[in-house]
Design goal:
This protein is mainly beta and about 50 residues long. It has no helices and four strands. A hairpin with a 2-residue loop joins strand 2 and strand 3 (about 30-40). It is rod-shaped and about 65 Å long. InterPro entries: HSP_DnaJ_Cys-rich_dom_sf.
């Protein structure tokens, strides 16, 4: 009988530290805007690996 290996668990994304993305500031004409940019490494989920 074969022994079942435990499934790898998802870990916090190293690219965004589990946040799923980051905010960037864009300024023009004296107006500051914040935009959310999804993390490319995890696709915005905040997790990597696992099944």
């Amino acid at each position: 009988m074969t022994e079942q290996q435990p499934k790898p668990q998802p870990q916090a994304c190293t690219g965004c530290s589990g946040a799923g993305g980051r905010t960037i500031d864009t300024s023009s004409g004296g107006i500051t805007r914040q935009h959310w940019v999804r993390c490319q490494a995890c696709g915005g989920t905040g997790k990597q690996g696992g099944i």
